[in-house]
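Postdoc handover notes: sequence design on the structure in folder B. Input tokens:
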């Protein structure tokens, strides 16, 4: 059996069981149990570039070595963490206990902010660099790949996106502190145990970019309710948690509104592309972009509505 031979490259004992994990989108993931306990076996699919794997695996190893709670790549007897199984790049990762939350609380948001700030600090001396493939310069080509079909999703969406791109390209901050960011820290990528954060997972969009852009992505992902209504008390908690570990500069505070707009547009564009280009019979149902259209519209009215920035001022952070 190919898997049995593969496991002999590791010092984790004999295989007891294997079970596919349906949540995997970018990769094929399996929960395996051996003499040494549960692990995650990942087979990397074509959407994940093989040249990026040393960054992803190295980052998790670096963070885990520094005491950050995240899955750790398991080294083979040779010392390598990247192998080959079934003709695909593969790795075995430690199992992280916990569950994601579908309705985050204010306490959850504070913990996520604090953990994100801590992650940014601990990753500051990580030596491998990976450019963000989904940053400002990539948004217009991604939009052009959808073209006029965007109006099939919502009337006037082509003009709406085009106007926003013009604004962001003229006003995007380029001199803020940069470093390694998670870039995809949605609630399903954070685990909790008994209401305590147990760790981050899924680092396969991690890259180097503006640190505050990561915080903006979290504001969009964690601080709106199921009807896309902004919840300032959650943004307040998220920001307070973050600055408890890594203080933000005044320039970063000032840039939060435009960074939130940029993050909303980034996820709007990727969801738009996936929605319009899902192949027939695909097992993964793409997420409709409407959610991020509404969030972007909110951020565009930031001067007229209570906002994350006001929450920060009320909390004494500004």
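Designed sequence:
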């Amino acid at each position: 059996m190919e898997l049995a031979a593969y496991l002999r490259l590791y010092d984790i004992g004999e295989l007891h069981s294997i079970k596919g994990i349906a949540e995997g989108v970018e990769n094929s993931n399996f929960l395996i149990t051996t003499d040494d306990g549960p692990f995650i076996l990942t087979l990397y699919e074509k959407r994940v570039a093989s040249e990026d794997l040393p960054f992803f695996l190295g980052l998790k190893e670096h963070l885990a070595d520094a005491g950050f709670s995240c899955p750790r790549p398991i080294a083979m007897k040779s010392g390598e963490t990247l192998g080959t199984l079934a003709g695909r790049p593969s790795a075995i990762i430690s199992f992280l206990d916990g569950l994601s939350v579908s309705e985050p609380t204010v306490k959850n948001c504070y913990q996520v902010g604090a953990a994100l700030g801590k992650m940014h600090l601990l990753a500051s001396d990580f030596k491998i660099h990976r450019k963000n493939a989904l940053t400002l310069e990539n948004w217009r080509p991604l939009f052009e790949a959808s073209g006029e079909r965007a109006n099939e999703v919502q009337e006037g969406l082509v003009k709406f996106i085009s106007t926003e791109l013009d604004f962001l390209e003229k006003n995007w901050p380029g001199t803020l502190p940069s470093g390694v960011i998670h870039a995809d820290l949605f609630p399903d990528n954070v685990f909790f145990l008994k209401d305590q954060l147990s760790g981050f997972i899924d680092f396969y969009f991690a890259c180097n970019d503006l640190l505050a852009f990561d915080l903006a992505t979290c504001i969009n992902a964690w601080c709106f309710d199921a009807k896309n209504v902004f919840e300032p008390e959650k943004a307040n908690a998220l920001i307070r948690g973050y600055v408890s570990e890594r203080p933000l500069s005044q320039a970063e505070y000032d840039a939060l509104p435009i960074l939130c707009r940029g993050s909303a547009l980034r996820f709007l564009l990727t969801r738009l592309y996936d929605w319009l280009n899902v192949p027939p019979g695909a097992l993964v149902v793409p997420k409709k972009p409407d959610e991020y259209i509404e969030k972007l519209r909110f951020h565009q009215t930031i001067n007229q509505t209570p906002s994350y920035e006001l929450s920060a001022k009320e909390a004494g952070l500004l």
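Context for whoever picks this up: The longest strand covers residues 27-34. Don't rerun without checking with the PI first.
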